[in-house]
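Please fill in the sequence for the structure shown.

STRUCTURE ENCODING:
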């Protein structure tokens, strides 16, 4: 996904949260927005599988059609930032971070972590991030990366016509399996159909797929953010800088 699409996903996801949750995060839009684009802007490509590990993974992909663990980093980064946000909130509420962050800094950083989680969730919903075995040459593209850019530019080009489906937030299990399921769904339902759609150059099918990709990215982001906020009791606390009810 391109930066503008990541920002769109984060923006609509914020709007889908409950009013109480939205009021905590709305003043932190700057953190959410920069988190949603940070991984691309800083060109963060590789990350250790676990802290201190020498083994590294590529973080913008979870190739379902690859057996190499290095190709599955997007799941690792989504799991880490979702669960990392929970520990971060719990530590702050316990007072363990009192020396390091005041409330404004804590919320700004939390916004960024949630934005990063959204970025990688959205990547897991993007077909070309979950598979690579495709005959791009027969579709007229010299490299996979050129075809990759084409499909992402098409999503961006369709922004105004997207038929996004929005749903109420629900609790999910923030496990590796949960994020893998998102990647597998995208692979089976979208990646495997890419070749057929692009061979015909069917703009209506491309619009349909773009709408589903963005809707899924929003739905999963909303569920993950809501789960993080609910599990930590964020809405039960009083926070400054909230809009008037
Ligand atoms: Zn990415």
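FILLED IN BY: designer on duty
SEQUENCE:
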């Amino acid at each position: 996904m391109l930066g503008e699409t990541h920002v769109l996903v984060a923006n609509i996801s914020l709007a889908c949260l409950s009013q109480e949750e939205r009021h905590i995060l709305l003043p932190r839009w700057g953190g959410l927005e920069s988190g949603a684009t940070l991984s691309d802007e800083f060109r963060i490509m590789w990350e250790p599988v676990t802290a201190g590990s020498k083994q590294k993974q590529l973080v913008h992909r979870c190739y379902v059609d690859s057996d190499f663990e290095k190709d599955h980093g997007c799941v690792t980064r989504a799991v880490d930032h979702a669960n990392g946000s929970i520990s971060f909130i719990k530590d702050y509420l316990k007072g363990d971070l009192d020396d390091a962050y005041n409330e404004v800094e804590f919320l700004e950083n939390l916004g960024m972590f949630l934005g990063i989680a959204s970025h990688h969730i959205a990547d897991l919903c993007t077909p070309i991030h979950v598979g690579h075995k495709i005959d791009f040459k027969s579709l007229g593209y010299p490299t996979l990366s050129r075809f990759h850019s084409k499909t992402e530019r098409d999503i961006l080009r369709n922004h105004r016509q997207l038929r996004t489906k929005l749903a109420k937030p629900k609790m999910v299990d923030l496990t590796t399996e949960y994020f893998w399921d998102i990647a597998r769904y995208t692979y089976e339902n979208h990646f495997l159909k890419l070749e057929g759609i692009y061979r015909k150059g069917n703009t209506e099918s491309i619009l349909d797929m773009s709408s589903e990709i963005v809707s899924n990215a929003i739905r999963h982001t909303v569920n993950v953010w809501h789960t993080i906020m609910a599990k930590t009791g964020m809405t039960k606390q009083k926070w400054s800088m909230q809009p008037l009810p």
